[in-house]
Amino acid sequence: MTRLRTAIPGPRSLELQARREGAVAAGVRSTLPVYVASAGDGLLVDVDGNQLVDLASGIAVTGTGNPAPAVAEAVHAQIDRFSHTCFMVTPYESYLEVCEELNALAPGSHEKRSVLLNSGAEAVENAVKIARHVTGRQAVVVVDHGYHGRTNLTMALTAKTMPYKHRFGPFAPEVHRVPTSYPLHDGLTGAEAAQRTISAIERQTGAGTTAAVVIEPIQGEGGVIVPAGGFLPALARWCREHGVLLVADEIQTGFCRTGSWFACDHEDVVPDLVTTAKGIAGGLPLAAVTGRAEIMDAVHAGGLGGTYGGNPVACAAALGAIRTMHDRDLNAAARRIEKTVLGRFGTVAEKTGAIADVRGRGAMLAIEFTERTPDVAARVAKTCHEQGVVVLTCGTYGNVIRLLPPLVIPADLLAEGLDVLEGALLA
Ligand code: PLZ
Q1: pLDDT at 344
Q2: 81: CA distance to ligand 1 center in Å?
Q3: Which runs of consecutive H residues, i.e. helices, occur in 289-395?
Q4: Is the CB of 147 inside a 6 Å radius of any atom of ligand 1?
Q5: Angle between helices 69-81 and 312-327 in degrees, nearest 10
Q6: How far apart are CA 222 and CA 345, in angstroms?
Q7: Which of 33, 74, 260, 284 could be a cystine partner for 316, CB 3.0 to 4.6 Å?
Q8: Does 119 reside within a domain?
Q9: 342 near 366, Cβ under 8 Å?
Q10: How far, CA to CA in Å, does 261 sit from each of 60, 137, 250, 416?
């Protein structure tokens, strides 16, 4: 199938890229400087008329489509009625509906409350605010390879210096980093890794001064790291025993991405607070903290909020996106993608010594290379990009290719993208 009309990037994209240099801050980078004109389920169409196969979903956002028809419809209907009032000034019903959906879907059958925000980083900041407020403790524990955002507090929570933290300090205090479970590198069982993590917390931070452990149940930017089975449940148990809140950062893993509503569901882990964003609103900026009612309600009135948090257009989009996840059973779709990709690349790995691991859950998948340098991953990604397939790299060592396809991607389009990736891996 020839989807490309020009070299990638094409002439019009190159023109825009040159113009960008005079307008956009150089610190903002694009993985693939191909300028998008329109999109569909698993396709991006650029300004030169090239069709690109999208295996990134704008970093795990457009899982329901770009956009899902239900999202487009809801957004149009809402923007025709009103665009903004500020929920803190004069509220509206869709904010309540999104919170009700989140409270019902988030792990655990206990009573929950939610607050809506704009970005993932803002959600994580708010989770930490709430955890400190309710526990009266200040220390926050995070783990190696973690990613939580680019604001000052979330930079402190994020592990990797380059590009996220380099020369941006000083960072927020009372953040303590401990080891996590990375089966490929540490060879530990979940129980062993949890013991290592817990003993580091007890030695370095102290259970009694720790407000929260903030952790991605599957680490995204850090390398699509799936912890060994039993690691998260053991950590959750320790948190509960010591009055430490477990904050699951499900910003990347949430909303069917890993084949269940939340990645915590795979091991029946019930966190105290959950942060969400990305896939929640089909491409519009929306984020949330959802948690135990008694924790969320402990914060004084006026203590949480923001001008745009839970914007009505974003809320309408979220309701359309969540409806799409139900109607199209996108958890099952994610599991089908997992089966296709793991089946296929397990075999490819046997043919080349360059691949150390093929892993992931649902439509959050990765290939880690043996070399702990970015070279091979960068070369493979570049080859895919040149052939019109959008893949991303990630990982503390930059040596991971990751796949985050839209959950609605048609099987033949996914296969086309994977053919190109396979060719690049074996080249
Ligand atoms: N927590 C687990 O994955 C965002 C960021 C890419 P924001 N990940 C993609 C980049 O280079 O900026 C993310 C995440 C997890 C928090 C965040 C932050 O979410 O919406 O980007 O603020």
Answers
A1: 95
A2: 31
A3: 293-296, 312-327, 330-351, 375-386
A4: yes
A5: 160
A6: 20
A7: 74
A8: yes
A9: no
A10: 14, 31, 10, 27
Determine, yes or no, domain membership for 63: no
Number of domains in the chain: 2
Low-confidence ranges of the chain (pLDDT < 70): 1
Q: Ligand 1 centroid to 353 CA: how many Å?
A: 32
Domain presence at residue 138? yes
The answer, yes or no, to whether any atom of ligand 1 lies below 6 A from the CB of 148, is yes
Q: What is the model's pLDDT at position 1? A: 57
Beta bridge partners of 115: 289
Asked if 279 and 408 sit in the same domain, the reply is: no
The domain of 389 spans 11-54+329-426
**CATH number of the domain encompassing residue 177:** 3.40.640.10
| Strand 273-276 relative to strand 245-249, pairing | parallel
Tell me what pLDDT residue 103 has: 99
Q: Record the pTM.
A: 0.98
DSSP assignment of 147-174, as one string?
---SSHHHHHH----TTTTTT--PPPSS
CA terminus-to-terminus distance, the chain: 20
| Cα–Cα distance, 199 to 203 (Å, whole number) | 6
CATH of the domain at 379: 3.90.1150.10
Please check whether residues 192 and 270 belong to one and the same domain.
yes
Quote the pLDDT of residue 2: 80
Neighbours of 202 (CB within 10 A): 15
Ligand 1: atom nearest CA of 220 is 3
Distance of CA 54 to the CA centre of its chain: 16
> Ligand 1 pocket, 150 CB below 6 A?
yes
Please indicate, yes or no, if residue 3 is contained in any of the structural domains.
Answer: no
